[in-house]
């Protein structure tokens, strides 16, 4: 599959070469596809005008499949062959799967599989069915082939889950332009990438999950500085709280739910959900259900809803507080709060978020669609359709990449927050005389010890000609493509022997591991900021010294002796503090030099003007 071309900034692509890029939100319960048409991002509907596709695939007798609403409708009758929430299984081993799912999982090396009447299905295959359905929808809608897709993934997805998502897209015949983080897509949908910098929170309350992400925007690049949430908290819990309240209101013990028939329970749940959704636009709603012959009724108003669900909303805010703490940020530093997920339509949720941050959250886009819309904008831009001088959106590597060296230490080759795509290399050598092979161990993490980092892959470089220890030159190159997927190669420079590996990480890093690794990387963030400030101050100092020196080389005759001595002294002072590692001192000395040379700069400018004017009469100027 050919890659899409990206036009140079400022150059609009040839209109005949207009590329169709789509954005896909591959969600746990719902999926959507969107595209930019006539300059506006919009979700693409199916033939019945519905934009939301339930992320459910049912394998039928005789080889057929149902995807979406039809499949959802038979979930109760055919649970073993109706696969919902498959996103929770992507890139996961059996031990990592915590969700209770009504179908049968099979333990497989790497990733679980699902036993269905159509045989064993990998989560990648099931996801591919959903993606292909959306691809056909887009093709019908444009009446043309689709050139590429941007697919969103949760910010906390590790390499294994991202690789599985990419595999699913390829299986569905999609050319993946890029995987982007869901919160990043939501921020793009709100145009936050058009600001030059800022800190943003993305609050995503869906059907079964809650995610909070803190993003930092610097020069058009979003970086995820913290993620958090609860993988078992969502709109379904609000439904359950309403159902429990309805039972209690009618004098039925909550425990009695267990004795209800499956269809009565499903009906109770459906009614509760409907009531909840109605209360997003009305002040009160009447509930009337007959469960196994027993009639229940009640009038539910917003105040009561707020009371019975307050504990749930509070749990989301606790997670927000934790994420802010991880990022070492105060809530007043957040410049915008983006609301994502159907459950953020609830006024009680919006109010709680507003009160917490002390600012109006962004809610004017449809919270179901916002992630897909942002993905569509990103796909459109990557396809080279957006002229003007917009910055290309870049993602960054969340955790550093490196290899193991002697002593169980990690040598970092690609630092965290490096924008991608990127390629970086470093030379290594052998440890023993006559060593002909090298074991390479690829790691990800922020810590210095191998034991504290995550092992991604191992491979060997063989056939190195025997040499004295330290004589071989082995260049290890890391290439990270636009989706954050990694290839590592090692090449002995004298003999040219080479080995490489595409890092398909051992699937199945547990959520706690990811949280822990991120946590550890956040705790080094403060040091990173200091290091960056120092490097920037040093670069500025060097630039100032160089500029002053070259001005002196050209025009020192303009200066009186004492002026010259003063400038020399300021330069000497800056050269002296530069290596000391104190960013503030370097900045101060740079400023002094800049001030101290202002008069000199003015003299040089006058001289330049006089030279330019020399020999010209008034008429030619
Ligand atoms: P997910 O991201 O988990 O796939 P969604 O973002 O689509 O889920 O959110 C689905 C949830 O949003 C469901 O619990 C649904 O009841 C809830 N929801 C949808 N519309 C409304 C509404 N108008 N008011 C309250 N909740 C709603
Ligand atoms: Mg969602």
Explain how this protein is built.
By secondary structure, this protein is an alpha+beta fold. The chain folds into 4 domains: 21-234 and 310-396, Nucleotidyltransferase, domain 5; 235-308, Actin, Chain A, domain 4, CATH 3.90.640.10; 401-523, Substrate Binding Domain Of DNAk, Chain A, domain 1 (Sandwich), CATH 2.60.34.10; 527-613, Substrate Binding Domain Of Dnak, Chain:A, Domain 2, CATH 1.20.1270.10. The chain contains 14 helices and 28 strands. A hairpin with a 2-residue loop joins strand 2 and strand 3 (40-43). The site of magnesium ion has 3 residues, from loops. Magnesium ion is lined by residues 27, 206, 341.
Short characterization:
Helix content is 35%, strand content 26%. It is built from 14 helices and 28 strands.
Topology record:
Layout: E1 21-26, E2 30-37, E3 40-43, E4 53-54, E5 56-59, E6 65-67, H1 69-73, E7 82-84, E8 104-106, E9 113-116, E10 119-121, H2 123-142, E11 148-153, H3 159-171, E12 176-181, H4 182-189, E13 197-205, E14 210-218, E15 221-230, H5 235-249, H6 262-278, E16 284-291, E17 294-301, H7 302-326, E18 336-340, H8 347-357, H9 370-382, E19 395-396, E20 401-405, E21 409-414, E22 419-420, E23 422-428, E24 437-444, E25 454-462, E26 474-480, E27 486-492, E28 498-502, H10 511-523, H11 525-555, H12 561-577, H13 583-596, H14 598-613
Parallel strand pairs: 1-11, 11-12, 13-18
Antiparallel strand pairs: 1-2, 2-3, 2-4, 5-6, 5-7, 8-9, 9-10, 13-14, 14-15, 16-17, 19-22, 20-21, 20-24, 23-26, 24-25, 26-27, 27-28
Helix pairs in contact: 2-3, 4-9, 5-6, 5-7, 7-8, 11-13, 12-13
């Amino acid at each position: 599959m050919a890659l899409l071309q990206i036009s140079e900034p400022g150059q609009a692509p040839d209109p005949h070469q207009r590329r169709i890029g789509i954005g896909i939100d591959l969600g746990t319960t719902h999926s959507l596809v969107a595209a930019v048409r006539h300059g506006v991002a919009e979700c693409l509907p199916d033939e019945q005008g519905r934009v939301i596709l339930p992320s459910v695939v049912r394998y039928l007798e005789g080889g057929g499949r149902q995807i979406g609403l039809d499949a959802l409708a038979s979930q109760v009758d055919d649970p073993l062959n109706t696969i919902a929430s498959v996103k929770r299984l992507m890139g996961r081993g059996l031990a990592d799967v915590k969700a209770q799912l009504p179908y049968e999982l099979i333990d497989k090396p790497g990733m679980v599989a699902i036993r269905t009447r159509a045989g064993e299905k990998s989560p990648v295959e099931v996801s591919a069915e959903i993606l292909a359905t959306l691809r056909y929808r887009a093709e019908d809608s444009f009446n043309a082939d689709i050139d590429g897709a941007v697919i969103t993934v949760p910010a906390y997805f590790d390499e294994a889950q991202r690789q599985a998502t990419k595999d699913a897209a390829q299986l569905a015949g999609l050319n993946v332009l890029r995987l982007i983080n869901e919160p990043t897509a939501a921020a793009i949908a709100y145009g936050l990438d058009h600001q030059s910098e800022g800190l943003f929170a993305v609050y995503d309350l869906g059907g079964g999950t809650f995610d909070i992400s803190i993003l930092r925007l610097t020069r058009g690049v979003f970086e995820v500085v913290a993620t958090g949430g609860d993988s078992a908290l969502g709109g379904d819990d609000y439904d359950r709280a309403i159902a429990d309240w309805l039972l209690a209101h009618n004098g039925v013990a909550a425990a009695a739910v267990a004795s209800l028939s499956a269809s009565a329970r499903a009906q109770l749940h459906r009614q509760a959900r409907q009531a909840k959704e109605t209360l997003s636009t009305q002040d009160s709603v009447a509930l009337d259900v007959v469960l196994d012959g027993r009639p229940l009724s009640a009038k539910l108003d917003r105040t009561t809803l707020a009371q019975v669900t307050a504990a749930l909303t509070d749990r989301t805010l606790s997670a927000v507080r934790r994420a802010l703490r991880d990022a070492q940020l105060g809530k007043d530093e957040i410049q915008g709060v983006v609301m994502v997920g159907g459950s953020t339509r609830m006024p009680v949720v919006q109010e709680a978020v507003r009160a917490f941050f002390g600012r109006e959250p962004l809610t004017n886009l449809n919270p179901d669609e916002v992630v897909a819309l942002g993905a569509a904008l990103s796909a459109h831009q990557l396809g080279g359709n957006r002229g003007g001088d917009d910055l290309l959106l870049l993602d960054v590597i969340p955790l550093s990449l490196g290899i193991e060296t002697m002593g169980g230490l990690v040598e970092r080759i690609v630092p965290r927050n490096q924008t991608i795509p990127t390629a970086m290399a470093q030379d290594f050598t052998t440890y023993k005389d006559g060593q002909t092979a090298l074991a390479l161990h690829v790691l990800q993490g922020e810590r210095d010890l191998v034991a504290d980092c995550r092992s991604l892959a191992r491979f060997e470089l063989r056939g190195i000609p025997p040499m004295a220890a330290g004589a071989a030159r082995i260049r290890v190159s890391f290439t990270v493509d636009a989706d954050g997927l990694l290839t590592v190669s090692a090449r002995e420079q004298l003999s040219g022997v080479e080995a490489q590996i595409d890092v398909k990480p051992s699937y199945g890093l547990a959520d706690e591991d990811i949280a822990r690794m991120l946590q550890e990387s956040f705790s080094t963030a403060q040091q990173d900021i200091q290091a960056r400030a120092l490097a920037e101050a040093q670069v500025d100092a060097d630039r100032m010294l160089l500029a002053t020196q070259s001005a002196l080389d050209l025009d020192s005759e303009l200066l009186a002796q004492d002026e010259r001595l003063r400038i020399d002294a300021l330069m000497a002072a800056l050269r002296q503090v530069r290596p000391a590692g104190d960013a503030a001192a370097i900045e101060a000395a740079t400023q002094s030099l800049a001030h101290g040379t202002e008069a000199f700069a003015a003299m040089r400018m006058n001289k330049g003007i006089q030279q330019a004017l020399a020999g010209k009469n008034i008429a030619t100027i």
